[in-house]
Write a structure and sequence with these properties.
The complex is a heterodimer of chains A (96) and B (490). Chain A is mainly α. Chain A has a domain of 39 residues. Chain A has three helices and two strands. Chain B is of the alpha/beta class and 490 residues long. Chain B is globular and about 65 Å long. In chain B, 62% of the residues are buried. The chains are: A mainly alpha (96), B alpha/beta (490). At the A-B interface, helix 1 and helix 2 of A face helix 9, helix 10, helix 11 and helix 12 of B.
């Protein structure tokens, strides 16, 4: 077993997911089964192989820095769970 | 006279000759939805009134003596991960249950220019993660050929709608096979264009370096016409290509003389259903008899492609889905502070498969594991791409099954994600390499389920795919069969 239940709990925090204690073992089992399958990649010597993050020969794509019309504020806020005075509203972030 | 079972090019001619009206056509397809969608469940949203209004506008145009272009008045469905301004777009997730996009995806702007009728939004696996449409947070879609079987996925609603006659055409998206595999399972034509050929702006992101929007249609002719509409550079998608877009309908010619077809030995190996193998081999032999040349090739890293894909796609997904934080759009579940709110929102509103992929992706990207998993997978991606580069020095196209089996029973694979992932063995390598692929119907299993032939092309060679697919299609009758819907006209 490579992934421990402790790892699953840590990854859940990174992913902003709460895994109920009753399901931690199931997740640990699934992740281990998947990662075991991924281990076949270790058979390949990739020492001198460059990684491909993207298939197109693109580097940075720039455009002129000019102001253009953008999404109307009312429309941009139209799906907000909570809003106030033209802003997205969220629960308290800082103490005090 | 019923109209729902005809391809767009036939319906367009009937509209032009005034044999039918656009309203009668849309009404007939809406009637079909009423008749069979209760069982097939291809739609998450049906925009009935808007559809009839769009059709009436086309009839008004015809009444004024104006000419209409190919797609005007032809009703179709849109996969529910493509943003449609003013029409709810859920990605089949509870997270976006009430999301109404304030803008259109670029493909929807292009579609609007040619004035078809939009019938509604098609069901899918949640956030396009899955191969059976069983991962929809709302309901599974049934295969129109046999209702206890899956339609494939993730574009299962789109493929099932075209197969059931509840849409004449549809748009899907393909990250690891999500257009080609459901097209194969449902007996329709589905194409994943070259990465960058079609703008992804407004497609809800799953794995950005792999995702591509494409057409699902009743035949190859309609596929070429729909690709003409959606292809092209878009300044809103910096990964879309500036390559010239040919008129794909010019490739609707029956000619494969001298075409070199590669058959990868690794694709005709263990795990391939014998009936699928028989149909696909017969289809390739048919093209050989029409003048094509068959060449055996090797894609030696095929066995590693699935492993690389199931690290890369979840890694990108874990990053892309970080945006669902309960702040600017989507659902929110209240919490005591912002982190608690985000965690509760994501835990309650994402489904199991989505959570599993976010977890595996976060793990593969996390400190200490990045080099061993994510970077390793990107290097293997290079090897998979090099396999194709070398093969395409010798051949013009590569042919294979689209999926190793015909459609399987609903629930059959649900408990074993790894077994389900293996279904993508023939489709995933193209996404890793960015290549175009098309699935065309090439037969039926003894149980009466469709089988699809996958044709793979060089980058930007969709025209060659269409020529090969059209030549094959016109040489047999499989595309003329309509799903009997549980035996009703079987």
């Amino acid at each position: 077993m490579k992934v421990t239940s402790k790892d699953v709990e840590n990854v859940a925090v990174l992913s902003r997911l709460a895994i109920p204690e009753s399901e931690v073992q199931t997740y640990t089992g699934h992740l281990n089964a998947l990662l075991e399958y991924m281990d076949v990649l270790g058979e390949l010597d990739t020492e001198n192989v460059k990684p491909t993050a993207h298939v197109l020969p693109l580097k940075n794509v720039f455009r002129e820095d000019v102001v253009k019309p953008s999404l109307d504020r009312e429309l941009a806020l139209s799906n907000a769970p909570e809003r106030e005075d033209g802003y997205f509203k969220v629960p308290k972030i800082l103490e005090g | 006279m019923r109209l729902f079972d005809k391809p767009a090019h036939v319906l367009h001619d009937m509209l032009v000759k005034k044999e039918i009206t656009a309203v009668a056509l849309t009404q007939d397809v809406l009637d079909r939805i009423d008749e069979v969608d209760g069982e097939v469940k291809a739609y998450l949203t049906v925009t009935r009134e808007d559809a009839l209004a769009q059709a009436a506008a086309v009839d008004a145009k015809l009444a004024r003596g104006e000419s209409i272009s190919f797609w005007e008045g032809i009703p179709g469905a849109i996969k529910d991960n493509i943003c449609t301004k003013g029409i709810r777009t859920t990605c089949a997730s509870k997270m976006l249950e009430n999301f109404v996009p304030p803008y259109n995806a670029t493909v929807m702007e292009k579609i609007a220019e040619v004035n078809p009728v939009i019938l509604g939004k098609a069901n899918m696996d949640e956030f396009a993660m899955g191969g059976s449409t069983e991962n929809s947070a709302y309901f599974p879609t049934a295969n129109p050929w046999q209702h206890d079987c899956v339609p494939g996925g993730s574009s299962g609603g789109s493929a099932a709608a075209v197969a059931a006659g509840t849409a004449v055409w549809a748009l899907g998206s393909d990250t690891g096979g999500s257009i080609r595999q459901p097209a194969s399972f449902c007996g329709v034509v589905g194409m994943k264009p070259t990465y960058g050929r079609v703008s992804r702006y407004g497609l809800v992101a799953f794995a950005s370096s792999l995702d591509q929007i494409g057409p699902i249609t009743r035949d190859v002719t309609d596929c070429a016409h729909l690709l003409n509409v959606i292809a092209g550079y878009d300044e809103k998608d910096s990964t879309s290509t500036k390559a010239e877009v040919p008129d794909f309908t010019k490739s609707l010619v029956q000619d494969v003389k001298g075409l070199k077809i590669g058959m990868p030995k690794e694709y005709f190996a263990k795990g391939l259903d014998p009936e699928v193998e028989k149909s696909v081999r017969a289809a390739i032999a048919q093209l050989e008899s029409l003048g094509a040349e068959i060449v055996e090739i090797s894609l030696p890293h095929t066995a590693y492609a699935i492993s690389a894909y199931y690290l890369i796609a979840p890694a990108e997904a874990s990053s892309n889905l970080a945006r669902y934080d309960g702040v600017s759009y989507g659902e929110r579940v209240d919490g005591i502070d912002i982190v608690d709110m985000m965690t509760k929102t994501r835990s309650e509103k994402f489904g199991e498969e989505v959570k599993r992929r976010i977890m595996i992706g976060s793990y593969a990207l996390s400190a200490g594991y990045y080099d061993a998993y994510y970077l390793k997978a990107l290097k293997v991606r290079t090897l998979v791409k090099q396999d194709f580069d070398q093969a395409f020095e010798k051949v013009d196209v590569i042919m294979s099954p689209a999926a190793p089996t015909p459609a399987y029973k609903i629930g059959e694979m649900a408990s074993d994600p790894l077994k389900m992932y293996m279904q993508d063995v023939y489709t995933v390598p193209l996404n890793l390499a960015g290549l175009p692929g098309i699935s065309v119907p090439c037969g039926f299993s003894s149980a009466g389920l469709p089988i699809g032939l996958q044709i793979i092309g060089k980058a930007l060679a969709e025209d060659t795919l269409i020529r090969a697919a059209y030549t094959y299609e016109q040489s047999q009758q499989f595309h003329n069969k309509i799903a009997g819907l549980g035996g009703e006209n079987a």
